[in-house]
Amino acid sequence: MAASAQLGLRAKLSAIVVIVVVLVLLPFVLAGVAYLDRQGRTEAERQLAVINRLAIDLVDAHHAGSGDIEALRRRLGEFVIGDSGYIFIIDANPGADYGRFVVHRARRDADALRDSDERGREVIRQLLEQGDGVLRYSWRNPELGEQKARRKMAVFATHAGLGWLIGSSAYEDEFNRASITSRNYMLAAVLTMVLLLVCALNLAIGGLVVKPMLRLQRTLRTLSRGNETLVHAEDEAGLLDGICRVLVDTGGFRFARISLGYGAQLLDEAAGAGRVEAFRTALAAHATAAEDPAALAAGSRRIVFIGDPTDAGEGVRQAVHAAGCRALISFPLLDGERTVGALTIGAAAQGDLDDAGVALLRELAEDLAFGIMSQRTAQARHAAEAALHLRERAIEASGDGVFIAEVSAGEPRLIYANPAIERITGLRRDLLIGAPVGMLSSIARQGLADLRAALLARRDAQLEFAGQRADGTPFWCECSLARVGEGATHVVGVLKDVTERMLYLRQIEHQAKYDALTGLPNRSLLGDRLEQAIHAARRHRTGLAVAFVDLDHFKLVNDNLGHRQGDALLREVSRRLSLALREGDTAARQGGDEFVILLPDLVGEQDGYAVLRRVQELLAEAIEIDGRSFFVTCSIGVSLFPRDGDDAETLLRNADMAMYRAKDGGRNAIRFFTTDMDRQVQDRLEIEQELRQVLARGELHLAYQPQVDAGSGRVVGAEALLRWQHPRLGNVPPLRFIPLAEESGMIGPIGEWVLREACAQAQRWRAAGLGELRIAVNVSARQFHALDLPERVGGILDETGLPAHLLELELTETMLMGNIERTEEMLHRLKHLGVELALDDFGTGYSSFAYLRRFPIDTLKIDQSFVNGMVSGSDAESIVSAIIAMAHSLRMRVVAEGVETAQQQRQLFQHGCDQMQGYLFGRPLPADAFAELAGAGGA
Q1: Which residues pair with 136 in a beta bridge?
Q2: From CA 267, how far away is CA 170, in angstroms rounded?
Q3: Are 897 and 918 in contact (CB under 8 A)?
Q4: What is the tens place of the pLDDT at every residue in 358-384?
Q5: 137 within 8 A of 152, measured Cβ to Cβ
Q6: Which of 206, 251, 283, 460 is the most exposed place for a label (fewest CB within 10 A)?
Q7: In this structure, are residues 788 and 802 in contact, taking their beta carbons and an 8 Å threshold?
Q8: Confidence grade of residue 721 (pLDDT, cut at 50, 70, 90)
């Protein structure tokens, strides 16, 4: 750092010297350069004037003689003017030759005013206008390969008799080369003089100014850093080590050493930095303890300075040499009349310890002695304070509240309270200290009375009490009271906060009885309340309604939007249920999206119906969740006590049964239980049980309804329809067992059986020579949402050998209108197999024209309700016509279902329907009968 500072100072002073020298010499240099330049110009002008005078004389001689112009040109061309100068003559007579070169080295007979470039024309015009004299200008001759312009001069005059302008032209630097050389020598001499002056002054500055200044600056910086260390040191060891490092790192000394002790008996080598270890080792090996400079300084209480190590003892000399020092100084560290120790410093040169430096280092030693004593005093004070506050800090840091009450007379007063008291009670600590015990107002009244009584009795006690903080949060405490000595007037109390334990117990109790998501009573609490309601209704002879509430299509919310929004919807539904009920009614969550409502104290069925209608109306209002609007409907089943049952299990079962009847009836309805529902449920259970054995028993078979071409009447395909022939129940209608198969999950294996059997039958017809008959198979919603449906269809096609284009999968609008992206992906995967896709019962669902454009649908099947309506002349015919036109615009085939009359056939044909099916062409037939019909060519 010192070297860089020295170089920086020298560089600044040298720059100042250079600037001064340049400012002094610059006017003389500039004057000399201007003089030499002026002399060169004058010389060039003089020589050109002489040459021009000779040229004029030659022209006069020529004019007086032969007048041969060519001879004149040769004579003038022999003149040599520098390297590139020449003589020129321009015709200045008015007329056609005005401005034409009579004589020119390279442009003889050229028209100077027309054939020259812009710069050349400008110079010629100036020459002609001026007539005679001298013209100076800048010129670059590209014909000679010149890259930049140079100063040029022309001396010229007009011949009075001939009217010619005769001139001599040349570059100025071709005449004043001697001047230029002199100027360059002069500049080199000035530059050399400046460099010599700078070098001389730099050497003088370095020895006389820079080194002393830098040495003093370094010592001042050392003193400043030392004072910073004194201020910021955290302990004595850090202080001593920091001072030694400052002396070595900032002061640039070879080593620094601090020894602590009393008088000459130094007891401790406290700190050191730099090459102190080499000094200490050599001193221990070659010198006695009495020769140690630190011991000498401490013993004499004076500074020990060794400027020349050769004058010291052998041991000290060896130690100084080992540390690489040329000088050494040791300062005693004094605290009044007491010697604390000594500070020893080794320097690389005797000059580093000049008078100014020693004075500053002595000041540093005095500050060091003061800092050592200050550290020791502070350390002793801290130890005393730590011992004094140890118990207080333990109490202050305690998680339990600790207070001391004085009960000498009258109302007990609080004389101390730790911070935990404020946290537990919510009361400000500064207001409690010195106040009567009654200030603990957040404690419940009875608990506060028990505390006051125990304090006044001055007895040990264990108390429990509850309270409420100012912010309304409750708390619970256990309080232990202990007397301070026999007959003392003070009692110590410890408050233990047991709020978390109490809240945990309450939470466990709440979780055991209430639903975690909605906060409504759960099944357990519902059972208790239902039993109590039954007992109350039986005792008071009042009515009781048990309502089963199920949200319609709630599964679509979870499947399409996620469970987070589904949970939010359930919470809002629960809130609205509670708002709709009367005081004393109960709404409980049964599970999922099912709720149970208890309506006690009913006079009649209408009372319960009115409450449940209010439930429906509140739920029907839009529910906003994350920017989406949801409209919720519900299906409600109701059972009444004692008409529909006199125990909880029966009432719940019958209400559940009525709820399912409400769903079957179109949802968003309220149904009261009837005995017919019980019989239907038993029938449903029987059908569901038998359905699980249907595949194993082989009771299913397929019937095939023909599909005919609208124009020719030829059979072009068939729709496979599932039939169940039960040995005891007989022919079970599809509407009776297919919905149950959907709900129970049996539709998956049944649907796969239907698909395999239909494909196999179509392949058998194909092998029998019936041609390319398309077989249409209905796909259930559960099948369609199975991710492996395309793989299953492909496997069945490979198994049966049926070409993919002869299989048509019929889908409903409802199953397509869920997750549009997922639906589109599934349809494209099916189309990739090569099968046909048909949209069944079109017009009865919620299809969007935009979605139809995205879906790869091949066929639209018009629902038979529209076909039946055409005969009556209603709007059905217009709707059918519009459907056919729309389908054809999307390049889809149209099949009309339920065609039963010839009039319907004609109307459909007129509107362009492609294919038809219905009783007019044939009822669903067994495979053999259908083969005969198809073989005959039509119905």
Answers
A1: 153
A2: 97
A3: yes
A4: 888 888 888 888 888 888 888 878 877
A5: yes
A6: 460
A7: no
A8: very high
b or e along 258-289 (b: 16 or more beta carbons within 10 Å of the residue's beta carbon)?
bbbbeebebeeebbbbbbbebbbebbeebbee
- In whole angstroms, give the CA distance from residue 484 to residue 470: 32
Q: Roughly what angle, to the nearest 10 degrees, separates helices 69-77 and 2-64?
A: 150
**Is residue 1 predicted with pLDDT exceeding 50?**
no
d(CA 901, CA 906): 9
Q: Which residues contact 5 (CB under 8 A, 6 or more apart)?
A: 214, 217
Helix, strand and coil in the chain, % to nearest 5: 55, 25, 25
H or E stretch at 725: strand 715-726
What is the DSSP code string of 427-464? --HHHHTTSBGGG-TTB-HHHHHHHHHHHHTT--EEEE
d(CA 81, CA 83): 6
- Please name the residues in contact with 154: beta carbons below 8 A apart, sequence gap of 6 or more: 48, 123, 127, 134, 135, 136, 137, 167, 168, 169
How far apart (Å, rounded) are the C-alpha atoms in residues 537 and 530? 10
Q: Where are the alpha helices (DSSP H) in 323-444?
A: 355-397, 419-425, 429-432
Per-residue tokens: 563: 């469970």
Structure tokens at 693: 């054995």
For 88, the token pair is 């020129």
Residue-averaged pLDDT of the chain: 81
Do residues 608 and 545 touch, judged by C-beta distance below 8 A? yes
CB 842 within 8 A of CB 813: yes
How many beta carbons lie within 10 A of that of residue 598, not counting itself? 22
- d(Cα 921, Cα 915) in Å, to the nearest integer? 11
Instruction: Please tell me whether residue 519 adopts helix, strand or coil conformation.
Output: coil
Cα gap 695→933, rounded to integer Å: 29
Show the beta-strand stretches assigned E in 176-243. Answer: none
Q: How many Cα atoms occupy the beta-carbon half-sphere of 503 within 13 Å?
A: 9
**d(C-alpha 683, C-alpha 353), whole Å:** 117
Tokens of residue 51, six digits: 């040459």
- Of 350 and 803, more confident: 803
Write out the two tokens for 864: 């038979």
Return the SS3 of 292.
Answer: coil
Which helix (H) or strand (E) segment is 33 a member of?
helix 2-64
Between CA 867 and CA 889 the distance in angstroms is: 21
Query: Residue 127, Cβ neighbours under 10 Å: how many?
Result: 23
Identify the burial level of 591 via C-beta atoms within 10 angstroms of its C-beta, where 0-12 means exposed, 13-18 middle and 19 or more buried.
exposed
More confident residue, 113 or 755: 755
Return d(Cα 839, Cα 440) in angstroms, integer: 77
Sheet holding 461-468, edge to edge: 413-417, 401-406, 490-497, 474-483, 461-468
The SS3 of residue 549 is strand
Who's near 264: CB < 8 A, 6+ residues apart?
Answer: 290, 295, 296, 298, 299
Pairing of strands 150-158, 164-171: antiparallel
Between CA 457 and CA 590 the distance in angstroms is 56
SS3 sequence, 862-884?
ECHHHHHHCCCCCCHHHHHHHHH
Q: Under a CB-based contact definition with an 8 Å cutoff, are residues 254 and 348 in contact? A: yes
Measure Cα distances from 464 to 139, 473, 479, 495, 664 in Å.
115, 18, 6, 9, 59
Instruction: Give φ, ψ of 65 to 5 degrees.
Output: -95, -125
- Number of helical H runs and strand E runs in the chain: 33, 31
**Coil, helix or strand at residue 480:** strand
- Could you report the per-residue pLDDT of 486-518, keeping only the tens digit for each? 666 888 888 888 888 888 887 887 777 888 888
Rounded distance, CA 128 to CA 111, Å? 13
